[in-house]
């Protein structure tokens, strides 16, 4: 068995040998138990601190030392965020080894994790998660989470990493209160939408169906309908409905998908003050008019 002890002699944890190969893997396991990221942990054997790459081999007993965060200047905070935004792995790692708090606030700037996620810098994202960065922290002028930014930009692998880390897939950003699923739907990020739906993202929070319909993203509309999104949902911000915005935009393929899902033909879109057919007629959306009339809309 592997045994991890505090300096006081209290046992922190034990685990069968062979399940963990090196010090880094042991620290990641201890992170789940202690809440301390691997950069704040030191594992000692006979008062010697082991490197993360060291193999465990015949070692059975380790002493765990948990470090406080180092004092950090405003410049160091900004340098870490800048390095994360550029995907500079070595610079990020050096800061975290100080160990620097990855969540120190910056006025109106993205946190390091959010900045890395926005750029799709997966190795930096992984490292910051290993440093126990707050995966649901909102930051930047729009008040976005790292997951929201990755979804908006369509970085599918980054989204996968954050979902694996159990980031909140339904947390809304402060500005316009958009969920990750709504942002991905609005921006046509099909692979990301699929990932979020597979992770049981709530399909009617912040009306992603309206967002996709307004942009004419027929494939995403189809995915959302397959996931039982409410076909007649009303967007709480502007009172629009999916069929209304699709008709107004002339998005015939989206209209067809909504009609096949039996969206209500006659209900008014309160945001426009008209039915789908009246909207299509007023705006000259001939293909949409034909589809609506063929489906029984009252002329």
UniProtKB/TrEMBL annotation:
* Annotated keywords: ANK repeat, Repeat
Q: Which domain of life is it from?
A: Eukaryota
Checking SMART domains in the record gives: ANK
Indicate whether NAD appears among the record's keywords: no
Does the keyword field hold Repeat? Answer: yes
Q: Where are the ANK repeats?
A: 108-140, 142-174, 176-208, 204-236, 238-270, 272-299
Protein name, please? WarA protein
- Organism source for this protein? Symbiodinium natans
